[in-house]
Amino acid sequence: MKMKRMLGLFLVLCLTVASFAACGTKEDTGAQKSGDKFYIGAIGPLTGGAAVYGQHVKYGAEIAVKEINEAGGINGKQIELRYEDDEHDPEKSVNAYNNLKDWGMQILMGAVTSGPSVAVAEETKNDNMFQLTPSGSAPAVIQYDNAFQVCFTDPNQGAASAKYISDQNLASKVAVIYDGSDVYSSGIYEKFIEEAANTNLEIVAAEAFTADSKSDFSVQLQKAKDGGAELVFLPIYYQEATLILTQANGMGFDPIFFGCDGLDGILGVENFDPALAEDVMLLTPFAADAPDQKTQDFVDKFKELSGGDIPNQFGADAYDAIYIIKAAIEKAGVTPDMSISEIGDALKVAMTEITYDGLTGAGMTWAATGEVNKEPRAVIIKDGVYTLFE
Questions:
Q1: Low-confidence residues of the chain, pLDDT below 70?
Q2: 192 with 177, same domain?
Q3: In a domain, 20, yes or no
Q4: Confidence at residue 19, expressed as pLDDT on a 0 to 100 scale
Q5: 230 and 296 both lie in a single domain
Q6: How far apart are CA 364 and CA 225, in angstroms?
Q7: String of b and e for 361-383 (b: at least 16 CB within 10 Å)?
Q8: Residues 306, 371: one domain?
Q9: How far apart are CA 86 and CA 51, in angstroms?
Q10: What is the pLDDT of residue 14?
Q11: Is 191 helix (H, G, I), strand (E, B) or coil?
């Protein structure tokens, strides 16, 4: 009897060990572990005030992944994309990053906005995970060598805007209204003022607001008007811009309004009269009405996927971001069975060696600092649509 009990315990122990071993085997031989797919995670706002940015990024990335997979993948390996909502909140972006890591993410495309991108950059640095943000433009996003941008950095947007306004002779007297409490807005503003000093632009007013005072812009607009501003530079987000345009119209002030990528999305704001945005200009690397076939094919696919929306530059940035990752993987000879850190080391070298022609720029290249080099363009809103300014 004792021998039988011993034998029974032995069999139970064997079954238990076998069960644990089987679980471990299942984990170790998943698609990611065996090198069947590249797992790309994406983070951005799908809900909240900045949702239009994240939604367009999601659609743009999905279009690119579908195209690549249908064409045979990357060196024969398919891409699996998973997108997490961060509500434009840095803490939630870090939570999203951890969720994606648990899922098996090897490469991050994100985040979409600057604050979350900076927060997540601390995590990707610790993991040495390759990070490519389509639209997180703050310089701190790329403070580490594993992070790169598709968009211009905030300072570069500011300098490029001043140079563009001057070179195109859009105005000589310029006012600026910016958010002094926001790193995106103040970063662009500072570089704009610095570059304006090297041009023929006269800054007649430079007025700040803060997150606690962004509903009434009458004082800022009056100072711009009294200064004789022919153009008002708005390095801000589209939500505040709608209020500024509405209030300027109410006081009979009709200068040129010129912004950066933060104004993209202004035509889709609920309860805003889009006629007030007529002739608003913004610096952007993408225009949906560009006549080239690549752009028009993308626009058609985007409209089909989104239910009729016209893509903004965030969607185009994300589409390019997926193809840029593909180009870097191919250049470096990366395979899905490599570790996250090995992939990160390989891709951050490859990024300085590739050249990419995309929707948001021809001949794009990257410095080891993570900054992109490409030519800025501007669009103007005409008849309720973005039109390339020429």
A1: 1-34
A2: yes
A3: no
A4: 39
A5: no
A6: 39
A7: beebebeeebbbebebbbbbbee
A8: yes
A9: 10
A10: 42
A11: helix
